[in-house]
Structures are given as C-alpha cells and as structure tokens.
Amino acid sequence: MDANANGTGVTATTTNDTTTSDTTNTATPGATGPDKAGAPTTGADDPARPLGWHKGYLEGSRSDLRVPVRRVHLTTGRDVTLYDTSGPYTDPGVETDVRRGLEPLRQRWILERGDTEEYAGREPRPEDDGIRHTSPRGGLRNLDAVFPGRPRRPRRARDGRAVTQLAYARRAEITPEMEFVAIRENVEPEVVREEIAAGRAVLPANVNHPEIEPMIIGKRFLVKVNANIGNSAVTSSIEEEVEKMTRATRWGADTVMDLSTGRNIHTTREWVLRNSPVPIGTVPLYQALEKVDGRAEELSWDVYRDTVIEQAEQGVDYMTVHAGVLLRYVPLTARRKTGIVSRGGSIMAAWCLAHHKESFLYTHFEELCEILRAYDITFSLGDGLRPGSIADANDEAQFAELRTLGELNRIAKSHDVQTMIEGPGHVPMHKIKENIDLQQEICDEAPFYTLGPLTTDIAPAYDHITSGIGAAMIAWWGTAMLCYVTPKEHLGLPNPDDVKTGVITYKIAAHAADLAKGHPGAQEWDDALSDARFEFRWEDQFNLSLDPDTAREYHDETLPAEPAKTAHFCSMCGPKFCSMKISREIGERFGGDGDATPEEIEAGMLEKSREFAESGNRVYLPLAD
Amino acid sequence: MDANANGTGVTATTTNDTTTSDTTNTATPGATGPDKAGAPTTGADDPARPLGWHKGYLEGSRSDLRVPVRRVHLTTGRDVTLYDTSGPYTDPGVETDVRRGLEPLRQRWILERGDTEEYAGREPRPEDDGIRHTSPRGGLRNLDAVFPGRPRRPRRARDGRAVTQLAYARRAEITPEMEFVAIRENVEPEVVREEIAAGRAVLPANVNHPEIEPMIIGKRFLVKVNANIGNSAVTSSIEEEVEKMTRATRWGADTVMDLSTGRNIHTTREWVLRNSPVPIGTVPLYQALEKVDGRAEELSWDVYRDTVIEQAEQGVDYMTVHAGVLLRYVPLTARRKTGIVSRGGSIMAAWCLAHHKESFLYTHFEELCEILRAYDITFSLGDGLRPGSIADANDEAQFAELRTLGELNRIAKSHDVQTMIEGPGHVPMHKIKENIDLQQEICDEAPFYTLGPLTTDIAPAYDHITSGIGAAMIAWWGTAMLCYVTPKEHLGLPNPDDVKTGVITYKIAAHAADLAKGHPGAQEWDDALSDARFEFRWEDQFNLSLDPDTAREYHDETLPAEPAKTAHFCSMCGPKFCSMKISREIGERFGGDGDATPEEIEAGMLEKSREFAESGNRVYLPLAD
Q1: What is the reported pTM?
Q2: What are the residue ranges spanned by the domains of chain B?
Q3: What is the ipTM of this complex?
Q4: CA distance A216 to A202
Q5: Class of domain A106-133+149-519 as given by CATH
Q6: Does B290 touch chain A (CB under 8 A)?
C-alpha cells in the first residue's frame, strides 16, 4: 500500500527522486546541520540505523517546479509519501550554507511575470537593530553577525501594478506558485486558484522572499501550523533563532513568525529569511516601538510605515496588523478579568488613550494596503482584544473587534491584498464553535488563524496541551492555520526543545482535524502506521511516527534488545499468541473474500476451535489494556 | 475571593483545619514520603519555599466524617479550596507508614450497618503470586515483600443481603459514603443518592477496602481520572507500584487500576490496596490467566470465580469484566485493520474459539453479580472489541458488543450491583459524539469510562496528547471517568514520571470538560489563577497551577532572579508598562461601578489620554504575542 498524508497516491516510481544515499547533509556545521537540527530519521546520529526516509520530489509542468515530499521506506518495500516542510536541509544532494542562504527557487517565476522592478531600497539605519543614542550599549551585540550573503536589491511592483497571488487568481492566472501548492496538496491547480480568488485561501509569498517553497492556507487544504520564534533583550542569539527556525520546519512547521524584540531585530530577521524554506511572518509594530525607544505614545504612522517597508524589502511574507483595536473598544475591556493580553493590542490601546485619537493603523489602512500589494505581503489581521482568560472569552470587546476585522478584510481585498484573520486565545470548549462560525460569517470565509485556543487557565507549563485540545477542535470546524503554543507560554522564552514540543503537539492537532474533516488521503497515514503496528513492523512504526527518535527511545527503555523490535515481547502482546495475531488468523479465516456466508463462518469457527485446542499457544501478557 | 474547583465557596474559617505547620510528613522514608512522592507544593524539597497549600477538612454530620480538601494560600491572604485526592500523605498531622497501611476510615460505617460478617476467607495459594510448578523460578521474587500489616479477616454480606451503595440508595438510605461525596462535590446528599439509585453514578467502595476516601463517578459530578499502574514479568517492583499509586493520587488521580501481571500479583495488590486512599480497580482475568500458566483455552469459570473472590476479599473496589465479547462477534473483527487490541477481549476471543462455546463470563454473569453484590464491588463492563485504530472506529464489532453491555448493565442492576461501561479507544473527532450518545442510550445513562479516545494513530510517544484531545471532548459530552494514557502507550511500561505526565494531561482534559459542562464553581479555579496572573502574583500563579514545581522551574529558566517573580520582567510584559497594567488602569477608570455612562467614559478617556501623555511610560516587550 502506498499511503500519502496529503492525498496523493504517488509512488516512488512515478517521481524522479534524489539519491537515497545515506551521505550526511553537507551543510556547514551549525544550526542547520541535520545532526544538530534534529532530523527525525536521517540516521545522521546513528549511521548503523537504516535511513528511515529520504527526500523525494514531485515534478510539475516545468523543470524548475519540483515539489519536495518525504518518502518513508517501509520494510515491506513500499514507500509512504508525506508532506514535507523541512526544506533543502534534509536533501543530502543539496549543499546548504547558512552564511550563503538558500537558493532563490522562485526568482525566475517572479522575473518572468515582468511586473516587478529592482530599486535602490531603503538605507539601513542603526536603529533598525535597536541601536539608540539613548542606549548605554552602542553597536551590535556582535558585528560579524551581519548576514554575509550576497546582497540582493529589493523588488516591488512596477508602476503600481497588483503583483499579489490574489490579483493573479482573480485574473484567472494560475501561477507556478499555485501549481506548486496544488501538487503539494494533491488538488487541481484550478481549485487553488478558485480558493485564492474567493479570498478563502492565501498563498503568502513576498516577491523579496524567493527562497520559499510555496504553501497555501485555507480550510479546503491541510491544516497548517505556525511556530513563533524570536530573540529578546533578555536571552538568545541570532544563531539560536536560525536553529529554532530550521528545527521548527524540520518537525513540521508550515510557517514561522519572527517575534524578535530588543536588539539585532533587522539582522536576525535577515538571517532567518535567507535561510527559511517556509513563509516568514512578523509583527512590524514591535520593531516600530523599538525605534521610538519603547514609548507607545511616540509611535506614528511614519515610523510604522518606514518599518513595514524595511521588512517588505527584506522579504517578510505576512504581517500581523492590529488595526481592529479602535479607541471606542478600549473601554469594553475595562471590566474584563484579564483586560488586554495581546502585545500589539495593548500598544495600540496605549497609543489611542495617549492621544485620544483613532488608531493610525485604522486611519491609514488603505495606504498600508497599497504598500503590502506592491510586495505581495499577506495581511494577518491581529486580534488585539482577544480574551486572555476563560472568563473573558467571547465577550463584547472580542466580537466588536472581529466585526471591524471583517470590514478591514473587505478593504484589503478591494486592493487585491491577501488576508487572513487572527483568533483567540483562551476559550472554553463550549464557546469555540461560536468563534469560528462568527469569524467565517463576518470575514467572508477568509482563512482563520488561531492561537490555540487554550481550554483552561489552570495549567501553566502544560499550555501546549490545554491549547492543543482547543486547536484540534477549532481546526476541525474550519480554522486554516494554528499558531502553536509551547510549554513555556506565560512563563518564559521557548528553547529549541520547547519549539519541537510545540510543533509536534500542533501537528497532532492539525492532523486530527484533517481526519475529522475527512481530508482526502489524511487517514492513509494513520492506516499505514496501524498496519505496521498490527504486523509488528516496529521500525516502520517508528519511521512513520511524528517523532521517530522519541518513539524508538521510549520503546527501547522497556525492551532495549534489538530482537524486541520483532514480534517478540511487544507492549501489547507476546511472541506466539497475541490479540493482533488472533485477529489476523480470524481475518484469514473469515475475511479473505470479504463476504463469508454464515455457514462458512460456522465451519471456519469449528476449524479454528480445533486449531486452538491443538496449538496450546501460550498467552503472553501485554503491558497495557 | 474564595474560589473552589468543585463549587463550594467554603473558606478556611468555616472548617476546622489541621495544622498548617510545615513539619514534613513523617512517613517512613520510602515511596510515600512527600519528598520522594513528589508532593507538588509541600515545600518538602525546598524548606525555604513557603508552603503553597495545606490539607484542610470539611466536617460532615458526624465527627468521623471529615472530607479532605486542598487549601491554596494566596498572597492576598485568601485561600482557594480545591478537590484533593492525595490522601493522608499530604497531611503533616498524620503519621503514615507503608508497612502498616492507612487507617480504615470507613470501618465503623461498615460495621454500623450490621449487614456484613467476617469469615475465614480463602486460603492464599502459591499460584496467587504466579508461582507455578512449571515455573523455572520458584518462590516470590523477594519473600519479605509479603505485606506486614496486621492481617484483617475478610467481610462479606450476611445471608445474601445486598450491601451495595446502589441497594442503599434504592432503599432511600443516605450512607456516610454518600454524604462524604456530597460534601466533596458540593451538592446535596439527596442528589448523590438519586444519581446512584438511578444507576447514573457509581460509588465504588468494597467492604474490604475501608481505607478509601469515598468518591463518586457520574456525569452530574466532576469528571474523574483513572491512572493505570502494574508491574509485569519484564520490569518494576512492588515498591515502584506503590510509589506510582501515591504519585498518581498526589497529582490528582481519582482511582487507580492495578494491572499487574507476571509474578507477585497478589502481594503487589495487597500493598497497593492497604496504602491507597482511592478506589482500586483490576482486571481479574489477567490473574486468572496466570493461574492457568497463560493458556487461554485452560481458563474456566472455576478459576475465574476463585480469582474474583480472592480479589474481593483483598478489597478491590471495581473490576473490569469483558463479558460482552460473544462468540458470534469474533468474526466481526475479521476484516478490521487492527482486529482485537484489548487484552481481555483477545483472551476471551481465544477462549471462545478454542472451545467454540459462548464466553463463560457471559453464561455465568448472574452468578458473578451475586459475588460482586456480596462485597459491593462495582462492575466496569469492558469493551473487549474497542477499536485499536482510526480505521476501526465505530464499527459493527464495537457497537454489537456495546448492545450486549447494555443488556448486562440491566442484569447487574437487577442484582443491585453498581455498574459502569468502558469505552474506546481510537476514534477520530467527528465520530466521538456518536460513541457517548449511543452508550448513554443503550446503557440507560450508566457512567461511561473511556480510554482517551486517541484522535489519531500517527504519534506514538505523544499518545497522552492524541488521547487528551479526545478525552476532553467526550467528557464534555458526558463521559464520567477518563482512563489516562501515558507517553509510553503502545511502546512500553510507564515509569513514575510517565504516570505524572499522564495524570496531569488528563486532569487538564477533565477540568476543561467541567468548564464546558458549566460545572458549578469549576471556573472559579481558572478565575483565581487568571486574577493572580493579571496582578503579577507569581507565587499564587504557581501554587494554583496543576504542577507548581514545573511552572516555577520553567519561569526561573528564563528569569531566575527572585525579583523576576514580581511585576518586573514577566514573559507577557514589563516593569512599568504592560498590557495588564493598562487594562487595570482602564478598569479603575471605567469599570469601577460597572455602569459608566457614555459621557463618563468619554470624560474618563480624555483624562486617561492626559495621564499617558504625562507618564511617558516605557513599553517593555513581552516574549510572546
């Protein structure tokens, strides 16, 4: 059987794969080496172990359109083909170097369209990296951190033309990016175009981020997962952020948001963008605030606009904009239990109160649309008034802002700008459906992008779980992308291990939702793993799992011996007799042709009873019922 | 504010508490010492740390009826009162000794009823501990492991009388056990009696297990969590099982199932029972199978009956019985992807096939009811044909067995035996509700007791999460008790850390369901924690959380300094300005009287804008949006 998580029945033979040689990735030693970035099954950390999967590619209509997939080798000789977000780092045939950055896969597609032009671009300034005259420390933390890769001049739309995937889709054009995601999702390119044209899906792809492997966010496609990274004034280095990005994508993150604050924001983002195979999102307001030395009241449209352009030229694919926090909504948070918990929301609330004026993000929204359109940056309209506790869920403040986001969504679309909507937050299970239903209605089915939601407030240190529950449910009901939550939520900055835990928890939620939505082919992944389990193919079970290393490690903790990875002593049954074995025998007896008559079954059971009487098989006891 | 997770607004003043002295538990060094058993906040492992909570008691109508609660001290001077399952081990005023066992709290209540009598009881035999003539190794692994506590002669019903809580409830009697749980759940005793009488709730309490603190399982009460423990031929010792039990209850397990196999089954169970403050469940079939040297076909009603009586006399409170696996259902599993995955189910299927006869558990069911009635053992009717993969969910085999369980439920009730029904297993989200709805209809609303369900098969090593998602949902829809799943599911035997992870994950699922069901007072726990979060009361946040130690540890990883536990540098905001702080100021401005007029709000906002202009507060950036 050849299963495929995203619905394609592709087999290795139908594709031109890269070599399956087990030469380890030749990336320069560093964050992006598979050995350090935690490649699940390249076997890099154990040469003796058989290579669990290799990178394959599905070819499109042109030679430069090759869609990466993960091929899991089964001991049966078959392959299972899975969606892959890990980028070139897991392709032994590709040399990667974090100091050079990834190859610009989309560059030719962008140039061929002929609707963008290079230009001088904005002059970098010290404050871009948080270097302030008021600052006690001058200069970058480490100057050699500046990205050494060949400088590329920025591009933007030529004479005000609309260069967004939405504009192309509306003009009935199927771009290479659309074909790429169509192959990736196993749907017709026309389906992709239709969903984008209708505003029900977005394909975030800044013309200045040609390195990405295109992906799509929409309820008709696989549920996506975003991982937040970002250094802060307190901790972490540029190298660590790049490692977080490569690890997040290796474990399955579909997009990454760089929420860096403090110093080196510009440089950190440059390193992340140039090395990222997935779309990168940011919250420009954070950097803008740094530029005014953290004084909310000193923020202005000019500073914000300058920051958006700075990030647009670097290649940020989508931006969170908290333009729905209106002056008149602020008092609605007055009687809340936890008031305003969104950073962006609280900053804009502070600005509105300080000036007693309407938010400049709202008053300048159309101008902002024109900027985003020139680079094809996707809006992620932020929910600055989302609930920060169970008590505040689905309240007046939250839904008032949502109605404004619906209004802004229409304005953005009128400018051909792709748009998704951000959602909560902290919501008890019985109030989750109301959120997604209302968002879909008010925002014309624009993709919903939710943080969790957390279904209870009582478990700090386990909020990946409190929120994974809500995330699975809201994704089942239509959320297109889930923003992960790590165990450190509410407590501190996630480290690379927290990033892995958050991503895997959210891949579980996303896949559980794909199953519940009946996404074509989603269950084939579960079936492949369950077949392996039923047939005691332990290595196949490990290699098909979301985290093969940990599954293998847990198994070996109880039964270290290699023979334990055969049918002998599994944790469910034992060597000769076991529930699975009985079942298979029953299957062979009655299930062969799938339509045994009552007489055949009766005869078969008599036969079976003789066998058992003679066999005298011993029952070994499993470890769990 | 004095919140209470299970709805009572009790304050410390209304109860007679035990001392709050921080003298550490004087239990003999060993598994049950709080220092080793991981008391969340006794501070035993850090004397410098203020005692986060102390044991309190709510008094009932008689002096020997004292319901334990957990009182979390807040820095505001108030207490939050929470449901507590940790037993006397967390009461510094009580001396515990694992070699002596716990005090028999219920003994007097049982004697007062005068409907039971002591009797000689069954003679212990070598095979009770798995010592077989065929065995290469003779004798116990360690003979001095035999429980040293004073031997107590077993009790049973006098001349066939019904001594079950169901029988009392039907006779309109409110027992001390019922009053105990009524206080614990903050409902009227009559509600408890009604739910038990109607068969919608069970109160598992074997007359030979007087050590337990009574608890109730039913959809009208708090969702309960069971933790499985049990040694095996492969690993673990008696001491480790006792430690798993005390750790599980300390972290919140409401019942514990001892699934021990291999050797020392009888002795391990004795140690667990004598030291357990919660009801203990077992699967007698496992031990019966050991007695026939693991040969399923050699099982017989006599061997099974002998095992049930052996365990009944020891004090097992509820027993899983796979009496619904009928001969004619076995072929229904033939075309399944993973056949029969329940140990009990596969053993009975093997027996049925070997003899080509109907299950002796089914044919002798009424006799079994008479035995359970004599000790007040609760039936947990096992789902031997539950699905073991997403592909097999809600199939003919599963629902055919469920209909038989409905029939057996009525027979058990006709014998005054308390009964709950076990459920799956592996079920995708969209098929979960059908399970609980069908079970409630077919089984006359008898309590549903489900294992997860796991919502996907692809994440071995993370099945506490794949199943926590399904558990929260099915509990919201009416499941009364959740059987936890640990990260080791499908891979190996859980160690004490896995037990903790499983219990905490399931406490999250159970509480999320209590919130969604609108359980009276459930949200007060969340509110108390969110208030502490909003007011930067870090220690209160830690102490109110399900796992204070880990929450504190994660916080300190990023911001180790003690001052960090004040408003300075929290992971959401910062020292002077933060979203929470703005919100509080807005609250004081507009929220004071809760009914500000538009004019007042307008005036207030103008005032506020002046304040901000003057304040020049700096915005510190949080670590997560």
Answers
A1: 0.88
A2: 106-133+149-519
A3: 0.88
A4: 6
A5: alpha beta
A6: yes
